[in-house]
Specification:
The complex is a heterodimer of chains A (261) and B (544).
Chain A lengths: L1 E9 L4 H14 L3 E5 L10 E9 L13 E6 L2 H6 L4 E10 L12 H10 L3 E4 L1 H8 L5 H9 L7 H13 L3 H26 L4 H8 L11 H11 L4 H10 L16
Parallel strand pairs in A: 1-4, 4-5, 5-6
Antiparallel strand pairs in A: 1-3, 2-3
Helix pairs in contact in A: 1-6, 4-5, 4-7, 5-7, 6-7, 7-8, 7-9, 8-10
Chain B lengths: L1 E6 H11 L2 E6 L6 H8 L10 E4 L3 H13 L3 E7 H6 L1 H10 L5 E7 L13 H7 L3 E2 L4 H18 L3 E6 H4 L1 E7 L21 H24 L5 E2 L5 E7 L2 H9 L7 E5 L1 E2 L3 H10 E7 L5 H6 L10 E2 L14 H7 L29 H13 L8 E2 L24 H11 L5 E6 H18 L3 E7 L16 H9 L7 E4 L6 H13 L4 E6 L6 H13 L3
Parallel strand pairs in B: 2-3, 2-4, 4-5, 5-7, 6-7, 10-11, 10-13, 13-14, 15-16, 16-17, 17-19, 18-19
Antiparallel strand pairs in B: 1-8, 6-12, 9-11
Helix pairs in contact in B: 1-2, 1-7, 3-5, 10-13, 14-18, 15-16
The chains are: A alpha/beta (261), B alpha/beta (544).
């Protein structure tokens, strides 16, 4: 087994904290690890990345070759695309959908998301909102880690335990909030996969999940079934586009009216 | 035996701690900073404490380390590659004097210039000084080579250079550590003449360094990191060093078994093994991170015909930038892996360069400076220096017009003023000022040269992650005055949006004054506000 991923975002978004949790959980699971990261000037609002290589045999290169990464895990949507060329053809992008516009030339949102949702395997999460719900505004990084948890070759409970360990020194409340943030993201990530497995078009599933509210636990099977049925409908694609750009987020309990034009 | 997840830098630090160092010295610089940061978290034990000190600059750091060695104990000195230029004087001379207690200089090179102004290769310094260089290829070797370097230093009485590169310094992996060795007892150098390099002594000491060369050659010839693997029959050969070995294995995979291979991790070059590789090979490709150091030697500057030597000098590998597995695949004519194709990617990707933080005092200092200079013509030039404020070169400020090396701004302003430049301005941070800005300011003060020095005092070395600065606030004023700048020509301003008009006036007034002025823009870094408070507390608590 070998699994390569890129964790990325902007300086100050907690990219290296995500890598810390994956590193320690991977080693606790008995894997070999190599994890280079970008330090230095980049921490001042510039692009930041960490490469994580996990394997059950010793790993040669610290750097991930192009086309070898299974996952790009990003805390910022444009940054997620910066590393897309490193992905295998069947690779995933898991990203927060809140743009951080600290550069003048930041792309137009519609074009950015059109390109993002054209990627075959995407999980998109409104991590900022979910982190707020978890009670720790800065925990959007742990929401994103949760959203990717089901894809990683590491048991989710091991990841969760290391999320807790990372924040334990700063008090139980913050640690618990970050674990909640992780669980909210995990629910969103697994829900996306469940929708796709249930026949929903990938772009539709990703757009809708990005605007959905979650609870810090897996979504019930009957709720999944309801949403699958709803999002398999022919008009779902247009509805998903509308939902993604609407002001008001959806809840899992919302009825069909949420899909009205 | 304990296993930990460590950065290469952290592995070097623990290797030094476990090797029984008494002290470590460094000046912060990416990608080397985490070495001393890690050592500072290991205070040693009550009866054998470890001192970890941020020094004024790399030259001072190395001289402090040499003092520890002189007293018979072990010291690690850490810096980035360009820091060794600053420390080159003690480095070259301690090579002649020889180490007494173990002395290891850990230097982190930055191929691709991720956060540096050049990609110079520190192996040349070891070669220049005729001392050994160890070049780890992974984090475990960072630990074991550091420990070994101290033993080597004491056995052969030489300082040892440990060469890191960014991708090793800043990459994590599992590292197994072994039980620590106790510190040396103090035991001063018996023959003080070796450290007193008056010409007659220096000739004798240099003779001793030359005498050590055959032992060094022997050491390198038998070092397990210099591993020669010959296949049956003549065939292509690879000569590969340091971290390049990892990329090569990744790029070639099982195809590596077709080549004769010589790995190098300890210098001087193992000449007999190189000879054996050349004899067995139809051609040899040299793969090394950094400059074509090995290639130049082995190919005799490219003059050697048989077997042909390929590498960076022959265009088979890129001459600049770091190696990667993909770079090596291309060099060996292997196809790129199939990757995900995303249409329209380039249309929605823009670069996101580093920038000054929200609320940064440098923003306000540059705002005031730019406004003060507005109307003085388009060709006003401001000499800049190294630190976060080097970002003042970029939009929106575009306020500085040079950034060469630590402390260069003041000396360059002096020269430009002599060449007729008016106004001759320069900008330097508090950390860089004490690192190497005080000497040129002394020049300017002695001659009252017509330059305007803006010291951006943000109370911290910010760009490398918040290390303590040597002087801040009134200490900076006192230093400047002590160098001979009249108190009336030292103006302290507070760079804030509210005080902009007043600050612009102060800068214009000083430009209008003939002669030397120093304007200190004093406001603490916002990003490291908490750390600055800690540093201030520590400084108060420290014995006078």
């Amino acid at each position: 087994m070998n699994y390569d991923l890129v964790v990325c975002g902007v300086g100050g978004q907690g990219v290296l904290a995500i890598a810390w949790v994956i590193d320690h959980a991977a080693v606790a699971a008995g894997y070999h690890l190599k994890q280079p990261e970008v330090h230095g000037m980049a921490q001042r609002g510039g692009a930041v990345s960490a490469f994580v290589r996990i394997a059950d045999a010793p790993i040669a290169s610290d750097l991930i070759p192009d086309g070898a990464a299974s996952l790009v895990l990003s805390v910022e949507p444009m940054e997620s695309l910066r590393y897309a060329r490193m992905l295998r053809p069947d690779g995933w992008i898991v990203t927060d959908v809140t743009p951080l516009r600290n550069v003048a030339a930041y792309p137009d949102a519609e074009r950015l998301f059109d390109v993002l949702f054209s990627v075959p395997r995407v999980i998109a999460v409104d991590a900022t909102r979910l982190a707020h719900k978890a009670g720790a505004v800065k925990a959007h990084n742990m929401v994103m880690l949760g959203a990717a948890a089901a894809l990683l070759p590491i048991p989710a409970d091991l990841l969760e335990r290391h999320v807790h360990a990372l924040f334990a020194a700063k008090g139980e409340r913050l640690a618990a909030s970050n674990v909640d943030a992780f669980r909210l993201g995990d629910a969103a990530g697994r829900f996306t996969s469940a929708l796709v497995a249930g026949g929903v078009a990938r772009g539709v599933a990703a757009r809708v999940v990005a605007r959905l509210d979650f609870q810090p636990r897996p979504v019930d099977g009957d709720v999944v079934a309801t949403w699958c049925a709803r999002l398999r409908a022919p008009a779902a694609s247009a509805a998903a586009a509308r939902i993604f750009t609407a002001d008001k987020p959806l809840t899992l309990a919302d009825g069909p009216s949420a899909f009205a034009a | 035996m304990t296993e930990k997840i460590l950065l290469g830098d952290e592995a070097v630090a623990l290797g030094a701690v476990d090797a029984g160092i008494t002290a470590a010295y460094a000046y912060p610089g990416t990608p080397s900073t985490e070495i001393l940061e890690t050592i500072r978290r290991h205070a040693g034990t009550a009866d054998s404490p470890i001192r970890g000190l941020w020094s004024t600059n790399e030259k001072v750091a190395l001289e402090e380390g040499i003092g520890v060695s002189y007293a018979g104990r072990r010291a690690l000195v850490a810096m980035k590659h360009v820091g060794l230029n600053v420390a080159a004087d003690p480095f070259m001379n301690v090579a002649v004097a020889g180490a007494h207690g173990g002395l290891v200089v850990a230097v982190a090179d930055d191929p691709s210039m991720h956060s540096s102004q050049n990609e110079q290769d520190s192996r040349y310094y070891a070669d220049f000084a005729q001392v050994p260089c160890l070049e780890p290829s992974d984090q475990q070797e960072c630990y074991t080579f550091t420990r070994e370097a101290f033993d080597l230093s004491e056995t052969l009485h030489v300082p040892v250079l440990l060469r890191l590169v960014t991708r090793l310094a800043h990459s994590r992996a599992r590292v197994t550590t072994s039980p620590p060795r106790r510190q040396n007892d103090a035991r001063y150098v018996a023959d003080a003449s070796l450290y007193t390099l008056l010409p007659s002594n220096a000739r004798r000491a240099y003779g001793k360094l030359l005498d050590k060369q055959s032992a060094l050659a022997d050491y390198a010839e038998h070092h397990p990191a210099n591993a020669l693997t010959l296949r049956i029959g003549r065939g292509p050969g690879l000569l590969v060093s340091g971290i390049a070995w990892n990329y090569l294995r990744e790029a070639l995979g099982p195809a590596l078994a077709r080549y004769h291979v010589l790995r190098v991790g300890a210098y001087p070059l193992p000449v007999r093994k190189v000879r054996a590789l050349l004899d067995a090979s139809t051609e040899v490709c040299v793969i090394e991170e950094g400059y074509p150091f090995i290639e130049r030697y082995v190919s005799a500057l490219g003059l050697m015909r048989e077997p042909p030597i390929k590498g960076k000098m022959t265009g088979h590998l890129p001459r600049s930038g770091e190696l990667t597995p993909d770079v090596l695949r291309r060099a060996f004519g292997l196809p790129a892996r199939e990757a995900l194709h995303v249409a329209g990617l380039d249309d929605v990707l823009v670069s996101r360069p580093p920038r000054l933080c929200e609320g940064c005092p440098h923003d306000d200092a540059y705002d005031a400076l730019n406004e003060a200079l507005a109307g003085m013509g388009d060709d006003v030039r401001v000499m800049g220096d190294i630190g976060c404020y080097a970002l003042g070169y970029l939009a929106p400020h575009r306020a500085i017009h040079s950034c060469l090396c630590m402390g260069a701004s003041i000396g360059m302003a002096i020269g430009a003023a002599h060449a007729g430049m008016r106004p001759a301005l320069c900008v330097i941070g508090d950390g860089t000022f004490t690192h190497s800005g005080m000497a040129p300011l002394l020049d300017a003060a002695r001659e009252n040269i017509d330059i305007k020095v803006v010291i951006l005092d943000n109370s911290i070395v910010a760009m490398t992650g918040g290390q303590p600065t040597m002087a801040t606030d009134e200490q900076v004023v006192d230093l400047v005055a002590g160098l001979g700048v009249p108190r009336a020509r030292i103006r302290v301003i507070a760079p804030t949006p509210q005080k902009k008009a007043e600050n612009v006036r102060v800068i214009r007034d000083e430009i209008a004054q003939p002669g030397l002025s120093v304007i200190i823009a004093r406001r603490a870094c916002v990003t490291y506000a908490k750390v600055i408070k800690e540093h201030r507390r520590e400084r108060k608590a420290a014995p006078a």
